[in-house]
Amino acid sequence: MKFNWGTGIVLAFIGFISFILYFVISMTVNKKYEHDLVTENYYGQELEFENELHKQRNAQTLKTDLFWSHTEDGLVITFPESMTPSDITGKVFLYRPSNKQLDFESAISLSDHNLLIPDKRLLGGRWNIKVDWKYQGNAYIFKKDITY
Asked: Which InterPro entries would you find in this protein's record (predicted)?
């Protein structure tokens, strides 16, 4: 068989198209490359956005904001000292952008100003923390992207 430039071009096109098809098929089938929406109820959370802005404005009026620290026991979220711990209610939501199976929510029940999230529930990497709490009828929210 004679190999000329026309045959070479056809073989190059076939090779290129084969590579692109292999790449597209492997990206759609492989679970490692699966990306979902941030939340299942995206539009419902969008409607809640105005309420969240109000909570953020309330949080900005606090003298001291929440802060977090990483200890060997886990993640410690510290509430303002001016608040009575037993009057604080709400929930903490930790969202893992890379794996939605690691997301979890925890209710706030305090005996002192610190809330401990155990180390066994958290893997190293990026987490988004959202603390939504109420104190004496006022609603507050704290959001932070952390690297644990």
From this structure: FixH
User: Could you please report the per-residue DSSP string of 12-62?
Assistant: HHHHHHHHHHHHHHHHHH-GGG----S-TTHHHHHHTHHHHHHHHHHHHTS
Answering whether pTM is above 0.70, one says no
Same domain? For 10 and 71 the reply is no
Q: What is the DSSP letter of 139?
A: E
For residue 133, what are the domain limits?
42-147
Say whether both 99 and 140 belong to one domain: yes
Q: Read off the pLDDT of residues 104-120 as tens digits, 9 standing for 90 and up.
A: 888 888 878 888 888 88
Give dist(CA 110, CA 117) in Å, integer.
12
11 shares a domain with 63: no
Mention every residue, 6+ apart, whose C-beta is less than 8 A from residue 16: none
d(CA 47, CA 15): 49
Domain count, the chain: 2
d(CA 51, CA 24): 42
pLDDT band at 28 (very low <50, low <70, confident <90, very high): confident
Digit-coded pLDDT (tens) for 61-104: 888 888 888 888 888 888 888 888 888 889 999 888 877 788 88
